[in-house]
Each structure stands twice: as C-alpha cells, then as structure tokens.
Amino acid sequence: MKNSILFALMIFISSSTVCQTSLSGIEVVEKSIKYHDPKGKLASSSWIMNYKDNSHFKFNPNSFDFEVKRVIKNQDVILQMNGDEFSAKVNGSTDLKKSAIEEKYTSEERGIMMRDYYQYLWTLPMKLKDEGTIIHDKVKTKDFFGKVSIEVRVTYMPEVGEDIWYFYFHPETMALHGYRFYHDESVNDGEYILLDGEVSIKDVKIPQTRKWYTHKEKKFLGEDILLNLTFK
Q1: Paired residues of 220 in beta bridges
Q2: Which residues touch 91 (CB under 8 Å, ≥6 apart)?
Q3: Contact 176, 151 (CB under 8 A)
Q4: What is the pLDDT of residue 81?
Q5: Sign of the dihedral through C-alpha 160, 161, 162, 166
Q6: Could you give the angle at the alpha carbon of 34 between the alpha carbons of 31 and 35, nearest 5°?
C-alpha cells in the first residue's frame, strides 16, 4: 500500500512538472512576477533595502534618484543622485581629498553602475520585462543545485547587453531559485547565483540571500544578505 501511494505521488509530481514546462518562457516570468511583486510596488513606489554588511540602496523608480551606501576599506561611502546633481561622501564628508578611498569608488560613473547593479539584481524577476530583454519561449526542467526548477533562457538586444542568462524558478509557485550568466557559454565562464530565504512586505517577496560562485572553479565570491525592505 505504501509503495502504491509513493508511486502515485511520483506520477503526480511528474505530471505537474510536465504541465508547468508546457508554459512559454514569458508565461513563466509573468507568473513569477505575480508571486514576487503582484501589484508592481517596486516599480511605482520609492523604497530602501538594508543589508547585513551595513550597506543600503535607496531608489525612486519615478525619478531614478538613488542613494547607495557601501563600506569600503572600513569607511562608509555614500553615492547619491538627486535630479541631475550627483554627490559623494566618505564618512559623512564631501571633502574627498582627505579620504583614503580611491576616486574610482566615488565617481558618478561608479554611482550609476552601482544603481544599475542593485536595481537589476534586487528587483528580479520584474526586471525581465524591461525593453530590450529577450525571453526565449522554450523552457526546461532542470536540477539547479538540488532544487527542481524551471529554466528560462534570457538574452538581450545588442544595445542592452551581450551576456547570456538562465533563470531558475520553482515549478509550482514560480518563486525565483537562482540564476547564472555567461559572457561566452562555450568556455563556461561567468557566474552562478544561489538564492535562499525571503523578505516579505506589502505583497512583495524578495529573496533574502544571494551567494555568488564562478562556473569554472566553483569559487565562492561573496554573499549579499537583505535585512529588510521599506517603502516610503
């Protein structure tokens, strides 16, 4: 009797997975967005994310104003954009000549790069609906580091980016499990990112922990841990 129940359960799980993989890539992404941010809060309201390493990211999606705080060489570096005005502070001071922080860490170019980094990675999978994103139709069921996942391939228009991305979703809830990217897939370069945990507020669910590894060496690169998300 026990074996019969187990067999039936395996058939049910297998059938469920096949059903889900009949979806197109766009349908999987849309279902995942409904899981993570069904009301589009991250794209319509100002918010701040605070992280375990004492960094934070503030963002206004309507004006693209932002503030990034990072700890570099044991010093607090804040990069901020209000309208067309960019500013940088080290330990609360705008007199950067007295700082031991290199100029490359306090430039406007660096600030914009950090804005794009945080906005993209921490608002996935919603960012997959941005213009220039190519979500491929065919999806696959894959084992993504011990998690049965639906794999969706994503590329970009040349003016947006050249990397090849793969995103992995829970086969039932469509929660984002992780992702990987390649500059040149044939040489197995690039990195993979494992997600764990979840921070939830006002119908928004954001993966809490991101762990980064290289493809070739499987070298651990670092970890980002979200403490909380607050809307203004």
Answers
A1: 213
A2: 75, 76, 99
A3: no
A4: 97
A5: negative
A6: 90
The predicted structure's pLDDT at residue 5: 44
- Beta sheet of 191-201, edge-to-edge order: 85-90, 75-82, 66-72, 56-59, 47-51, 220-231, 204-214, 191-201, 176-182, 164-169, 147-156, 133-144
Cα separation values, 145 from 29, 49, 97, 142, 193, Å: 20, 27, 46, 9, 10
Task: Calculate Rg over the CA atoms of the chain.
Answer: 20
Name the amino acid, one letter, at 126: M
Split the chain (232 residues) into runs of 10 and give each run's mean pLDDT.
44 44 93 98 97 97 97 94 96 86 93 96 97 97 97 97 97 97 97 98 96 97 97 92
- Evaluate whether 129 touches 119 at the Cβ level (below 8 Å): no
End-to-end CA distance of the chain: 56
Give the Cα separation of 228 and 232 in Å (integer).
13
Q: What does the pLDDT read at residue 7?
A: 42
Sign of the Cα pseudo-torsion (106, 107, 110, 114, in order): positive
Closest C-alpha to 62, from 48, 47, 43: 43
